[in-house]
Write a structure and sequence with these properties.
Shape: globular
Structural class: mainly alpha
Number of strands: 0
Largest sheet: none
Radius of gyration: 27 Å
Amino acid sequence: MNTVSSSPTAPAPDRRRPLAELPRVPVPAALPELSSTDLKLGMAGSGAVFSGYVLVHMLGNLKVYQGEEKFNAYAEFLRTAGAPVLPRGTVLWGARAVLTASLAVHVGAAAMLTARAWRANGTLLPRRPRRPRGRRRSPWEVARRSMRSTGGVLGLFTAFHVLDLTTGTRPAASRDFAHGSAYANLVASLSRPPVAVAYAVSMAALAAHLVHGIPEIANDIGAGADRRTQRRLRIGANAFGAAVAVGNTTIPVAVLTRAVR
């Protein structure tokens, strides 16, 4: 007579056990919350990166006045910087990675500080004493109170700018976009009046952001304690913001007036 041996099977789990008797899954400790000082330092560092970038970028853009050959050579240099030691595009993509990380830090820190201000004051803007009637806000006060709105404008402009002149994605890019033709793509894009106007408006927003942002960088790192330093920082920020904005704005004006074509 043959006997069939059966291997022991694991008992079915008891689904009716009390919740307290179920095995506990270890939960990692929560990350420490960043202080407002840490967030401001993050914004200061990332803001300094962007301030340097917009200046270098503006100086590169002005090469458009040297003609198509010079401008295209500059664009090619950005793609081949570091060669032959490094593969093509390494330095360019490294710079893009730094800018992307700086953007994440800047926007993330700004969002957390805004949320804290909202929780503390019940509004997206810090509470300030009312101004006497008839007193107008100075340009400095306007720039200070518009940092979030100008930052939003710059974010939208950056996204459009990348789609327009980097990836060539329609409808942001012109119909004549061709990869590798930096000069022709720039002229074709800014030949569209709505794009040229949006470019100029974005440069005005950039100037307002820099005018208040640069002194704030100094304040956050403790370099603008006394009034004399504050005054010099404001003068320098005004000059810097105006130079970058005006320098960039001359390009769509030159394209629309056919001075650059």
